[in-house]
Amino acid sequence: QKEVEQDPGPLSVPEGAIVSLNCTYSNSAFQYFMWYRQYSRKGPELLMYTYSSGNKEDGRFTAQVDKSSKYISLFIRDSQPSDSATYLCAMSDIKQGGSEKLVFGKGTKLTVNP
Amino acid sequence: NAGVTQTPKFQVLKTGQSMTLQCAQDMNHNSMYWYRQDPGMGLRLIYYSASEGTTDKGEVPNGYNVSRLNKREFSLRLESAAPSQTSVYFCASRRTGGSYTFGSGTRLTVV
Known about the structure:
The complex is a heterodimer. By secondary structure, chain A is mostly beta strands. Helices cover 0% and strands 53% of the residues of chain A. In chain A, strands 2, 4, 5, 9, 10 and 11 form a 6-stranded mixed β-sheet that branches. A 5-stranded antiparallel β-sheet of chain A has the order 1-3-8-7-6, with no helix packed on it. By secondary structure, chain B is mainly β. In chain B, a hairpin with a 3-residue loop joins strand 4 (31-38) and strand 5 (42-49). The chains are: A mainly beta, B mainly beta. The A-B interface holds A 8, 32, 34, 36, 41-46, 49, 88, 90, 94, 97-99, 101-102, 104-107 and B 4, 30-31, 33, 40-43, 45, 48, 50-51, 56, 58, 90, 94, 96-97, 99-105.
């Protein structure tokens, strides 16, 4: 079983739709959870960063973490064509000395159609 | 606001040639990382450096070497390039307990 599983999609939705992106993980030691957005031919950029279970909202984006189920989600409300990108979940545990490493999902490619 | 700078952006190598990918960050981050990204494989960690003077292997280190020259710079060297090393390479840095900041990538083709 891979440490982080993410449905690669692709996912195609109409403009204005609510999008739900999900990842599951197996390592109960993971404490930091992130979502990155990667536009075509660009580097990943941080979208959301959470440390604990629960919800975190930032504009049209909501990140949700359920540690008991080892499941994280990213919701995008009122999706726009500019949201078309690949979304990667990432997570890490806590180690001393800065040696913690992020483990990434493989990414879900999202297309929002006008 | 340069963040993480990678050079070169594109490179074509012949099998057996060597090259060094350069990475520099101006955010005073302690940790730096090299990833490769291939279709269907996601981001895979090649090497990382938790702090200046230390380096460690990641998931796919074979065929690569790294140097943490100082706190700002972390280079990745391919000693004898192989077609299997055709990929997009990303450098990233991270302050302790924080998120990663990625560079814009180097697209490498080995023919």
